[in-house]
Amino acid sequence: MNSPHILDLEFEELKKKLPSAFRAQQIADWIFTKGAETFDEMTNLPQDLRSSLKRDFALRKTTLAKTELSKRDGTLKLILQTQEGQQYPCVFLPHGHYQSLCISTQVGCAWECSFCASGLVKFERNLTPGEILEQILYAEKTTGKKIRNILFMGMGEPLANYAGTVGTIRWLTSLHGMGFQPSRIVLSTTGLAPQILKLSKENLRVNLALSLHAPDDILRKKIMPKSSKFPIKDVLAACKTYWQENGGEFTIEYILLKDINDQPAHAEALANLLTSARFPALPKINLIPQNPVGGIALGPSTESRAKNFFDLLKKRHFIVHTRKPQGQDLEAACGQLQ
Ligand code: SF4
Questions:
Q1: What is the pLDDT of residue 192?
Q2: CA atoms of 235 and 76, how far apart (whole Å)
Q3: CA of 119 to the centre of ligand 1 (A)
Q4: Pocket-testing residue among 90, 105, 112, 116, ligand 1, by greatest number of atoms within 8 A of Cβ
Q5: 35 Cβ neighbours under 8 A, 6+ residues apart
Q6: 177 lines ligand 1 (CB under 6 A)
Q7: Per the domain annotation, does 213 fall within a domain?
Q8: Are residues 42 and 92 both part of a single domain?
Q9: How far does the centroid of ligand 1 lie from the alpha carbon of residue 39, in Å?
Q10: How many angstroms is it from 273 CA to the middle of ligand 1?
Q11: For residues 308 and 287, what is the distance between their CA atoms, to the nearest angstrom?
Q12: Does residue 148 share a domain with residue 46?
């Protein structure tokens, strides 16, 4: 029961534990290509190797506790359960000809962003790479569909679980593992500046999204009391370093909260802030409508105010998207995960 998940080791570490790199690759193929859930299924491995793998490692550390399908838009929420009985969600998002998976990195979240249901869930612990990757394995098996995009936007702050997140991305992008293009992965953070700087040296090249939600530190403190301990100027400087060193896309996420951060002056201040940061290019901005969360009094902007905000940013030459809520009826849309 307490054996480590085999995917908590990176491929290079796994190789060292095995008689050869060839055996490590066979195991990875069984897990990621053939969908093996037990070592006994790995029939082209010698029996004594299968026995020692069974003794030393686990291949599943979670169970799929529940699935819920949205009748409205086909979104599927999957709830995984750890061996200790803790639950965490991931959300399968169909977009016509391709699909994304929004994954969790922690059980609960300690960051208490004021608009987010996950912030109401008591932080229990970080998930390991194996437990994070199992979300993808279960989602692909349950739906029978290949996932194209991975979004680190579920429960938890990915950079507060630095080792778990980096270990997961290494398997995701490795040709020995899942072989995702880094451009198909978005790592979203509330702005842990020191970890963003550290991440910039890992050569992961995944897209970075910053949950900013306010154009100044005073307002940010009201919306994101814990993340705001990192001043915006330090966070943007860290993101700039990451972007310069890793390329890919850098996106600003901005949730529109009625009468809090959605006025024209906020849009102008946001445009000024991002322009003056002198990024390699203007970042894209995703405007996120606030989704209803029980126990959170904040409400969504009116349609006209949201449109005005959008238009003001467009006038300042930003590429702006408004995120379409998916899975609202399952409480699986942005900010609703519990
Ligand atoms: S937005 Fe992210 S960091 Fe903030 S409470 Fe929600 S899950 Fe945690």
A1: 98
A2: 33
A3: 6
A4: 116
A5: 137, 140, 141
A6: no
A7: yes
A8: no
A9: 36
A10: 23
A11: 12
A12: no
Are residues 136 and 268 located together in one domain of the fold? yes
Cα angle 15, 205, 100 (rounded to 5 degrees) comes to 90
Residue 198 has a pLDDT of: 98
Model pTM score: 0.96
18, 85: one domain:
no
Closest to 49 in 3D by CA, of 76, 22, 83: 22
Number of domains making up the chain:
2
In three-state secondary structure terms, 79 is strand
The answer to whether the CB of 57 is under 6 A from ligand 1 is no
> What's residue 25's pLDDT?
97
116 lines ligand 1 (CB under 6 A): yes
- Cα separation, 261 vs 214, in Å, equals 6
Task: Give the residue ranges of the chain where pLDDT is below 50.
Answer: none
Give the model's pLDDT for residue 334.
79
- DSSP-assigned letter for residue 72: T
Measuring CA to CA, how many Å separate 141 from each of 29, 224, 233? 15, 36, 43
Q: CB of 190 closer than 6 A to ligand 1? A: yes
Which pLDDT belongs to residue 263?
Answer: 98
Indicate left, alpha or beta for 96 from its phi (over 0: left) and psi (-120 to 50: alpha): left
Residues 6+ apart with CB under 8 A from 3: 55, 56, 57, 58
3-state secondary structure of 88: strand
Which residue of 113, 151, 337 sits with most ligand 1 atoms within 8 Å of its CB, as the best mutation to test the pocket? 113
pLDDT at 1: 57
Q: Distance between CA 202 and CA 310 in Å, rounded?
A: 34
Ligand 1 center to residue 224 CA distance, Å?
A: 9
